[in-house]
Amino acid sequence: MTSLLIVIVLVLLGIAIWQLTKIFHLTQVGTSVRDTSEVANDRDNNVNGYLMFGFLGFIYVIMIYSIYKWGHLLLGTPASEHGPQYDHLMSISMWLIGIVQVITQFLLHYFSFIYRGKQGKVAFYYADNDKLEFIWTIIPVIVLAGLILYGLFAWTNIMFIDEEAKEDAIYVEVYAKQFNWEVRYAGPDGKLGKANVRYIEGVNTLGVDMSDPNAQDDIQASELHLPKGKQIIFKFRSQDVLHSAYLPHFRAQMNVVPGMVTQFGFVPTVTTDDMREDPAIMQKVAHINEIRSKKSAENIAKGEAALEPYTFDYILLCNKICGQSHYNMQMKVVVENEADFNKWLKEKKTLAAAVKESKETPAAPATGEPGAAPANDSAKAPKTDSTSTMVVAQATTK
Fold first, then answer.
1. Are 336 and 228 in contact (CB under 8 A)?
2. Are 52 and 108 in the same domain?
3. How many structural domains is the chain composed of?
């Protein structure tokens, strides 16, 4: 309703301005003699020519201001092996775009001014020039071909992993669903078990096929830990809609598509603790905490709780608008030394053990009933508990 009222007000405002313009023209009738021709004269062309130069200055000012105002929002030190190459490609592209934009915009507005219409001046008819057309065609072709080939080389480094690297790689499945992430690590066998949404039940929220021998040592987790200097191969699945796994500090992103498995791999090179000591990150954290402190003061004045100070962590985000809570679909990522990673992983329970434990948990006896439930009831109890757990888990995620 509010939007409709705004539209009506804007329409009425436009009509009012139009009517005022007509009244103004009527008041000018007979007051002065002026050129009413719709053909542009020298004065019109001069005004438009200078306005073109003014707009050119406006473009340059906006470009410089944008770089000054928001340049610090660019990502800093890359935390993956391929990251520097990615940043180098990005820098080349942005410099080329910037230089070409500055030159072409100047030429466009300059020639519009120099060759503006003048009384008695006749346009020179210039049919074609094969040499000129060849030059302005071949230069963009060469530049774009170089960028594309360099980009494909960088893409290949991420997407195609050598067989030797695969032998010592760590396989991690990243599972997306509205609106959170879950991860599953391959066990000592280095292989992830098969999975399907039809197998989702109870603690098995990833739908892992527990009859698959490769699934017996898989480890499920709610936080993504990565060892520094090790090749990581990610497998992505989606339970519901199209998501996109975005790891900005690692310069990596991959669509997560329902019904299929996508993948990419990279080698983390900077631990979380080391990145927290990076000067650029420290500056950003200080700026964020400055904003949060001001907000905390406002909250305290209203009788609300203050915000906690922000601490840097790597993060996994969803880069596709996947629903109402898309903005909140994120997971903490921890990069640590291999020894710390192995210790963390060793403390985790395998998915097979978790499923077995959930099935062995006895059902609580009914009120007033002595002892445990009958055999047939106890056999049904785990199934009921698993279903309840699944419903609660799904409700929580949604």
1. yes
2. yes
3. 2
